[in-house]
Amino acid sequence: MSAQRPPAPRLLDPFRVLDPAQRSRHLAAYERHLEQRDGALDLPARRLSRREAHLEELARKPVRWHGDFDAEGFNALFGGGKGSAPDMRTAWLVAAAEANEGESYGVELELRRFAQRHPDGRGAEVAYLHLLLQEHYHTRLLEVLCRTCGLDVRLQTPGLSQRAVIHFMMWLPERLRWILVLCGEVVGCVVFEILREKSSLFAAQPEVEERLRSLLGEIYHDEILHVAWLRARLHPRAIRVAHRIAPLVAAGVMREVPQFHALGCSRREFVFRLRRGLEIPPELDWLDRESSRS
């Protein structure tokens, strides 16, 4: 008797245009999910109560790679240094440390703007405010990830060209800016999906590998929900434009973080994953089963 095949993964097509009823259902479900996942929101302190409690729990139960890590090789590449990584684990860690660099910078600018316009949080779009604060926590989770690998790293400000692009995006008309935000979130999902898969590089120490997978899984969980929220929020025409330019955004990521090439992830692989669809975590059962694009 042949073994049964595992069920096919549920996929989210990030560029599928939803009908009005689907859009309303997804937006309502997302808002309910935020209440359960994030807890109370404190904008001046930039805190989400349940996220803060989780970080405290991680600090109480640290996991750390035992053995030497090539800190010199990491520091030579982190922040845009040229050259090849001395080994695959170093390439992985550089890619992970830089995965949220540009987004973190943009979120910082946006949070400052929010604080000026809505000092007490009133009048702000709550779901978007949660999204921004979640990205703030992603930066802190990636710092935990670096410590887990044996390096204490403070994530850096991106280079001049990346900062210029982010400032340019901040001043675009809303209808154009949200297209680029959707593209960035979709490509971010692919980035964290690849990093989670490649955390097997740390399989020699299973507790470390499991912690890395867990941290990256948390970030991926948020990122795919950001995609679902934006897809439900944007006009169909904007989604079609995003579908066309997402490969260009992926190419930009590959250029900014060349360590993905060292991990065996080409631009073609990125585009394939964009077209295939994003795997939906099992706990997000309110997202529809959707076939990927052909």
Protein described:
- With 294 residues, the chain is mostly helical.
- It has twelve helices and four strands.
- Helix 3 crosses helix 4 (88-98) and helix 5 (101-117) packs antiparallel against helix 6 (126-148).
- The protein is globular and about 55 Å long.
- Residues 290-294 have low confidence and may be disordered.
Topology:
Elements: E1 11-12, H1 20-38, E2 41-42, E3 47-48, H2 49-60, H3 71-77, H4 88-98, H5 101-117, H6 126-148, H7 160-170, H8 174-198, H9 206-233, H10 236-256, H11 259-262, H12 267-276, E4 278-279
Short synopsis of the structure:
This protein is mainly α and 294 residues long.
Percent in strands: under 5%
Secondary structure: number of strands? 4
Please report the distance between the alpha carbons of the first and last residues. 33 Å
Q: What can be said about the biggest beta sheet?
A: 2 strands, antiparallel
At the first level of CATH, what is the class?
A: Mainly Alpha
**Spatial sequence of strands, sheet with the most strands:** 1-4
Query: What shape does the CA trace take?
Result: globular
CATH architecture assignment: Up-down Bundle
The structural class is mainly alpha
Q: Could you spell the SSE succession in H and E letters?
A: EHEEHHHHHHHHHHHE
Q: Could you tell me the CATH topology label.
A: Ferritin
- Assembly type of the shown chains? single chain
**Overall mean confidence score, pLDDT:** 85
The number of helical elements comes to: 12
Rg, please?
Answer: 19 Å
Q: How many structural domains can be distinguished in the coordinates?
A: 1
Proportion in helices: 55-70%
Low-confidence stretches: 290-294
